[in-house]
Amino acid sequence: MNDWRHDPFFMRPLTRHQTSAGPVELPICYYDNSNVVALFKVPMAPARELVAPAGLEPVTISRRRVLVAVAFYDYRQVSIAAYREAGVAIAVVPAGSRPPRWPLIDLYHSLDRRMLGFHIVDLPVTTDQACAAGIELWGLPKFVTPIDFAIDGRRLRLAVSAPDQIDGPALVSLEGRAGPGSPAPQIEPLLYSLLDGQLLRTAVNTRGAGRIGLPGSLRLRVSDSTHPMAVRLRQLGLAGARPWMVFRSRRLQLRLNAGVALDY
């Protein structure tokens, strides 16, 4: 097993924070991980309804369609306990900010040069520690439930269980065989969240390559559950949706930094 503490990417000053599930040091370091990010285009109106309460504005990429990411993560080696995560995130800028002309290109600009980021509307995880840290340190909409994560070549099976019915149908799943793709780097996400009424800007430093390409037979399945995550996915029109593009990687590494309060 590698000792990632000696890797300059992870050599950062640590600050200890107390949570209801115990202490957590920031930045949280993610040493050995996999991820799948499915990108969708959704209508402006439901996206705006979900992000406006946080003082954010959706970013369109074509014909008033907004970029939404549905992502799955398998965090195998982390500076906290290993866990899995899934998320639904809408591309945004703070209200009143000028949106980028070319959002997809802007996502690959350095974090200190852009305002374009993502607002997460649902973020299930598999451990109490990850849940408490996300809610209490960033105001992220986390809840605990089992998550399946399986990659076999281009074939993917990713699923979030309903927390109140873990043996029943998946709350949401992404299954099928990804289409052909090309090598691509990881995006460095910029996250916007509300913590105690204050808008936070959180930089997530990443490295590692993967492949981005066509969705193939992949489809997003959403149950008819009344759970808020399923309701929001249906609200966005994502039940049964075919992704626009899909990124997948077994080589993700990242640092999740403390959020910085914005005066907006």
Description:
- There is one protein chain.
- The chain has one domain: Acetoacetate decarboxylase-like (Beta Barrel).
- The protein has four helices and 19 strands.
- The chain has helices spanning 44-51, 103-106, 128-138, 228-235, and strands spanning 15-19, 22-26, 28-43, 56-58, 60-62, 65-78, 83-94, 117-125, 142-144, 147-152, 155-162, 165-177, 181-185, 190-195, 198-207, 209-213, 219-222, 245-256, 260-261.
- The strands form three sheets. Strands 3, 4, 5, 6, 7, 8, 9, 13, 14, 15, 16, 18 and 19 form a 13-stranded mixed beta sheet that branches. Strands 10-11-12-17 form a four-stranded antiparallel beta sheet.
- β6 and β7 (83-94) form a beta hairpin.
- The model has no long low-confidence stretch (mean pLDDT 96).
